[in-house]
Amino acid sequence: MGLNRIFERLKLRYGSQETVIRTLREMGVQIGERCRIYTSHFGTEPWLIRIGNHVCISNDVTFVNHDLNWPFQDQYESLTGFGTIEIRDNCQIGIRATILPRVVIGPNAIVGACSVVTKDVPPNTVVAGNPAQVICTLDEYEKKCLERHLDIPMDREAARAFLIRHFWGDRP
């Protein structure tokens, strides 16, 4: 691995959001506005990835832009299978999800944690699993989120105390 690649990895892992996005754009990833990106796993063809506006990509998400074809290498010396990945506007990709080639996600879609996305994700849906499947609409998920909502204080220590009381009660 060359020094440039090592430096890129360090910036992606430890840099500010501005540094991460600037570095990814320099690597060829097309990124819209107001995105949050917490992964450094953009594979060997980052220029085949397009990310829309207002997208959040969680920790350890992996982008894969090529197929496995090793068993055929003796028969077809230059057999390749590349594909693009597009994440449209207003999407969230959960922690440790894997996105495979030739996939379009969203807009307004959520990919659950640890999901393996093997085909397009329809707009306004939530998908999860291996392989990822639609589990509900975005509207249904919003209702679930509102039902679970806790109005916690903004101060970190006050929020901690509130959550301990809420979930554990008076137990030490």
Strand content of the residues, in percent? Answer: 15-25%
Low-confidence stretches: none
Largest sheet: 6 strands, mixed
* Secondary structure tally, helices: 4
What best-fitting shape do the alpha-carbon axes yield? globular
Derived structural class? alpha/beta
List the secondary-structure elements in sequence, H or E.
HHEEEEEEEEEEEEEHH
Helix-residue proportion: 25-40%
What is the tally of beta strands? 13
Multimerization status? single chain
CATH C-level name: Mainly Beta
CATH architecture group name: 3 Solenoid
Residue-averaged pLDDT, rounded?
93
> What is Rg?
19 Å
CATH topology: UDP N-Acetylglucosamine Acyltransferase, domain 1
Name of the CATH superfamily? Hexapeptide repeat proteins
Q: Within the largest sheet, what's the order of strands?
A: 2-4-7-10-12-13
Quote the distance from N terminus to C terminus: 51 Å
Question: Care to describe what's here?
Answer:
The protein has 172 residues and is an alpha/beta fold. It has a single domain, classed as UDP N-Acetylglucosamine Acyltransferase, domain 1, CATH 2.160.10.10. 27% of the residues lie in helices and 20% in strands. It has four helices and 13 strands. The chain has a six-stranded mixed beta sheet. Strands 1-3-6-9 form a four-stranded parallel beta sheet, with helices on one face. The model has no long low-confidence stretch (mean pLDDT 93).
